[in-house]
């Protein structure tokens, strides 16, 4: 096996973050290019093919595309993407693969980012990593040995939808009092407005830092709810490391600090693992795509050697 | 590899349930003997060795011992067993292994039973099985591909210690309102006595069947709490099958039926897997020991072939 290129595309609603990596015989990828591109608005298969050919030339061994939404990775199909509705139902993997004549994998963007954080980011060195992204939703993903432990039906890790308050608000998922109804960005925004505050959840967190008494109960309730949910995670899943990222986890980290304090105070038989901040930031999705592409390349080499 | 014998000993406080199996070249075990013996009260290493020699003769390829308590399977040590205190701290695996000159594995009895139910019992045919034993405690165990997914620190699956009522009773583990404080046998006994009932949790369940209004709120609260805990399990772990056994799950099955009804009513995005009763009953622990012994034998053969 000589050096070959793999391409990771982390596709968002308006822009694509991509990494192009050169993979040596030992399977180690070296990122040779990293940038952003506008997301094509029409004819996605042809547009992605043109991007891949332009970036990687003839020496392309595989493409992995991360999509914000529900995907069926087995068939390479985008099931539903709120931010990329023109991809809904598209058999992106096989169609683009046929055109480029290389394997094309399609993954959920959160899972790609989780794989990246677990392998090369904040979870590096741990076999068993649970990543959590705090934002509009709460996305959880359990990565064991560098691979997603997705559960029997592909939905494991939904920490945002465990019930923390049975008498709480109706969640988008149909349950009442899910963690998301307390700590999700829309929930924090509503609570902050109801308390007379102005602006975004970040403004709420800023007001909390400045001692605003209106912010205090909202932020503490959210931090405590996250802590309680993490205790449930420790009891059921017992991860070796918890990585927390997403817009609400950064700047300031107060929500996470409150949650960690809660966990330390209330843990009994639990083993509290390191709870750390995500490190790869906005490039995590693209990095994860490269990881998945390298896995496929390595498996192909092994399968070929075994024949 | 010719046919060889493996021995599984499921050691309880007063009796040992054992199975002796003959393992053919294809790795399939055939149980040739199954019975109970009194648990030796002193000199456990010599006593276990005598039992193994007597049952298996010279043709012994491995022993697996299931212990009710905390064990370190890596070192073969019994850490703490309430029912077998004279084994506490004993390096049972290596000491007995040296004497018998075969590998001796030591496992927790609940995990051995879970492996058995997942492979050959009610979970047969499912890759990903979560087993739950309802009794004095609530023991959960996640078995994936026939092996226990024990978590990073060996404590995953503690469904009995997720908090279902933050304002609930103090649990033995130090938290408040764990599932065990609502549905564990001692909790049910206390609630039943407080309501003026007499007898055991089984009597409580019998009274519920007979329409006793004192039993109604206790049993429904317990069933609902189990259902809520199972919803959390579905969201976080997403198992392919849930197997429920233990003294409180059998005869009558009302607690489990109430929990399943609760899950069906409240599930939204969750995928509700088959929720079934354990099948192997009191022999599950010994059966699991045989499974673990066969695994070791098979690995040894593969390692030998690879050399």
TrEMBL record, chains A, B:
Instruction: List the signal peptide residues.
Output: none
Q: Which Gene3D superfamilies match?
A: 3.30.420.40
UniProt cross-references to SUPFAM superfamilies, sorted A to Z:
Actin-like ATPase domain
InterPro entries assigned to the protein according to its UniProt record, in alphabetical order: ATPase_NBD, ROK
Q: Which family does it belong to?
A: Belongs to the ROK (NagC/XylR) family.
- What PANTHER family does the record tag this protein with? BIFUNCTIONAL UDP-N-ACETYLGLUCOSAMINE 2-EPIMERASE_N-ACETYLMANNOSAMINE KINASE, ROK (REPRESSOR, ORF, KINASE) FAMILY
Supply the name of the protein: ROK family protein
Q: What organism is this sequence from?
A: Microbacterium mitrae
What does UniProt list as this organism's lineage? Bacteria, Bacillati, Actinomycetota, Actinomycetes, Micrococcales
């Amino acid at each position: 096996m000589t050096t070959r290129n793999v391409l990771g595309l982390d596709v968002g609603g308006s822009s694509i973050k991509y990494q192009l990596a050169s993979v040596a015989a030992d399977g180690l990828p070296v990122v040779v290019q990293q940038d952003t591109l506008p997301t094509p608005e029409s004819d996605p298969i042809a547009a992605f093919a043109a991007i891949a050919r332009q970036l990687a030339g003839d020496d392309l061994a595989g493409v992995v595309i991360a999509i914000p939404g529900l995907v069926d990775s087995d068939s390479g199909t985008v099931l539903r993407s709120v931010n990329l509705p023109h991809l809904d139902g598209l058999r992106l993997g096989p169609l683009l693969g046929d055109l480029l004549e290389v394997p094309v994998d399609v993954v959920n963007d959160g899972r790609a980012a989780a794989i990246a954080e677990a392998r090369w980011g904040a979870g590096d060195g741990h076999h068993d990593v649970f990543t959590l992204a705090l934002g509009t939703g709460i996305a959880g993903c359990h990565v064991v040995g560098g691979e997603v432990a997705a559960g029997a039906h592909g939905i494991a890790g939904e920490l945002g939808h465990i019930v923390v308050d049975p008498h709480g608000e109706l969640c988008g998922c149909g349950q009442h009092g899910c963690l998301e109804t307390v700590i999700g960005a829309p929930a924090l925004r509503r609570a902050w407005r109801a308390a007379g505050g102005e602006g975004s959840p970040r403004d709420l967190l800023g007001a909390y830092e400045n001692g605003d008494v209106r912010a205090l109960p909202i932020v503490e309730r959210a931090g405590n709810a996250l802590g309680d949910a993490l205790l449930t995670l420790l009891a059921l899943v017992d991860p070796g490391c918890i990585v927390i990222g997403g817009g609400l986890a950064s700047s300031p980290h107060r929500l996470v600090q409150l949650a960690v304090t809660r966990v330390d105070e209330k843990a009994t038989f639990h083993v509290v693992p390191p709870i750390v901040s995500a490190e790869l930031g906005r490039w995590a999705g693209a990095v994860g795509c490269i990881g998945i592409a390298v896995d496929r390349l390595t498996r192909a080499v092994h399968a070929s050697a075994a024949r």
